[in-house]
Design a protein that fits this description.
- GO terms for molecular function: DNA binding.
- This is MmcQ/YjbR family DNA-binding protein.
- Keywords: DNA-binding.
- It contains 5 helices and 6 strands, in the order αββββαβαβαα.
- It is of the alpha+beta class.
- The chain has a 6-stranded antiparallel beta sheet with strand order 1-2-3-4-6-5.
- Strand 1 and strand 2 form a beta hairpin.
- Helix 1 crosses helix 4.
- It is globular and about 35 Å long.
């Protein structure tokens, strides 16, 4: 997986737009960040999962998914090592993160 693939998947979700936050790209739905790229460097992305979702993705691929450092990670913020994940895993994680932030009216009509 490369950052352009991550970006394409993220902005392909309904209502998703790309912005920048703290000098790296982020992806938002209804003004809420659900994912980002480039932190701590270009090899990484991030998805905003629930703690339960985070554990699921880490169990599935511990090299690809790791809790973000500190309190953010305890709340479900999950770092994604792009070289260690495949398209299916990133898409599933991005959809989960998007669902966590998107308005119900959007998620009710979205079919994977």
């Amino acid at each position: 997986m490369i950052d352009t693939d991550f970006r394409t998947l993220a902005v392909g979700l309904p209502g998703a737009v790309e912005h920048a936050h703290m000098n790296h790209p982020d992806f938002r739905v209804s003004g809420k960040i659900f994912a980002s790229l480039g932190y701590p460097d270009e090899a990484w992305g991030m998805v905003m999962l629930t703690p339960e979702e985070q554990q699921h993705f880490i169990a599935e691929n511990p090299e690809g998914f790791q809790p973000a450092p500190g309190e953010w990670g305890e709340q479900g913020c999950t770092s994604v090592h792009l070289a260690s994940v495949d398209h299916h895993q990133v898409r599933a994680a991005l959809i989960a993160a998007w669902r966590n932030k998107a308005p119900r009216r959007m998620t009710e009509h979205f079919h994977e």
